[in-house]
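Workshop exercise sheet. Pairs work together: one partner reads the sequence aloud, the other fills in the structure field after running the prediction. Swap roles for the next sheet.
Pair: D.N. / O.F.
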Amino acid sequence: MIQHQSSTPTLPARVMVLGASGFIGQYLIRHLSELGMQAVPLASREIDLGQPESVAKLREVVRAEDSVVFASALTPDRGRDRRAMLKNLAMGDHVSQFLENNPCSHLIYISSDAVYRDGEHPIREISCCQPSSLYGFSHLVREEMLREVTKRAGTPLVVLRPCAIYGAADTHNSYGPNRFRRMALEQRKITLFGQGEEKRDHIYIADVVRLIGLCLLHKSTGTLNLATGQSVSFMEVAQKVAALTEGQVEIEGLPRSSPITHLHFDVTATLKAFPEFNFTSLDEGLTAMVEKASMANG
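Structure field:
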């Protein structure tokens, strides 16, 4: 659940985006600029949050009146082992060290739905957090680091936990729309775990950055899941992607090595926080993803 410190949408003085070169960061910079916000991209080439010297570098560029979006993390495609987890924890520690003595105006942390316990149904913001992966564990620990330091510093904090995000220019190749599109183009075949029975919620990247923008405008605090409330099977997603791809695309099931699990979200909190917000439907989002990708490829 979240609360708004500003009932009337108010532009922040400036927004510093940590992780600006990532999937979310790139879209977010463009969206904030469209909203008229002064957005400053800080990618790892400017400040490597994994390094201790990043604390001093943050002090040099972040002002007390700035809002900060912390969207930097090693995603599972870049490592699922303890080394990746420790790097993520180091990033969280360095940002926390900075915030201890340098409070900002507002902090938005982009976490993950991987913090929740498997089998939660439906998932709400108050659902049990018991990660089954080191990636999820790293996000949960980073959340607690930031809650502790922002509480002491009096810095407003909102934690956003997105479900599976899809869109053009995705860098993660995660199982779902992003990977299926690449398979369809490169292999003319989409392979699924089992028969794609598992149901998941997929949120379009444009909706993710729109919600982040609203949290900035309202100086929101608390915790919010970023999900649509609509879960569909991977088979249905694969069929939709295949239909949007020129030429014949085969859909093939592989032997299943793990039990079937479904994820459903209760998005009541989002609808209460932003009653006028409308999610992009899966059909609309997939069509936009394919069109944007085609334009980018000439």
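Discussion prompt: The mean pLDDT is 94. What would you look at next?
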